[in-house]
């Protein structure tokens, strides 16, 4: 029983970290870019149009 619990916890951690690695709450265009919101600009997170998960 203890072994099953450990395996389930390990799977939950693995799935939780891999599925949210490329998450973004805002809308992005077909190239994966978008303009910063006013709220993000105020926080200093970005300054304008930028990309997420851009492949090189």
UniProtKB/TrEMBL annotation:
InterPro entries: YHYH_dom_bact. Residues 1-23 form the signal peptide. It comes from the Bacteria. Keywords: Signal. The keyword Signal applies. This is YHYH domain-containing protein. It comes from Cohnella terricola.
């Amino acid at each position: 029983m203890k072994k099953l619990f450990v395996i389930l916890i390990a799977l939950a951690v693995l799935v939780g970290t891999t599925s949210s690695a490329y998450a973004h709450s805002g809308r992005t265009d077909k190239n994966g870019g978008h303009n910063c919101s006013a709220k993000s600009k105020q926080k200093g997170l970005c300054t304008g149009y930028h990309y997420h998960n851009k492949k090189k």
